[in-house]
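Could you help me review a protein record that somebody else here produced? What it holds is a sequence and that sequence's fold in token form. I have pasted the whole thing underneath without changing anything:
=====
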Amino acid sequence: MQWGAPNWRFGVFGVLASRASVLVLADVMFFAAAVGLGQWNTLRILGVLHLVLSAAVIAGLCLFVLDTAQLRGMVSAEGERAYGAAAARAGIVGAMSAALLAWAGFASLRASRAALKTGPAEEAPLVVGGRPRRGGGR
């Protein structure tokens, strides 16, 4: 770990940005579980966590842009195109991740607030249906 080296920070942000898309699946599962189980406080916690993560990604994206500008002069002429493509991809994914995190945070806070205003929902049975009637009729 070399926090002072801009090329190290550039690489770390690029790797984290490329792995962020995998975390979206886990994120969706957390939200689906919280909504499906009626865990509105958990949904609120997820919302706040996502807003904090969005701010962190935006800060990281700002530092990434500065590191990209600083490293641009160190890149050889033949590697300039690959460097630009990698920087653009990581920047776009980072910006989209920040937007998605912010949207998920605000949406979950709004959904949990609406659910808490309406009161607790009626408990739904796991299996929906009734007892079969005798005599063959329904």
In short: DSSP finds three helices and no strands in the chain. The chain has a mean pLDDT of 79. Residues 74 and 80 are 9 Å apart (CA to CA).
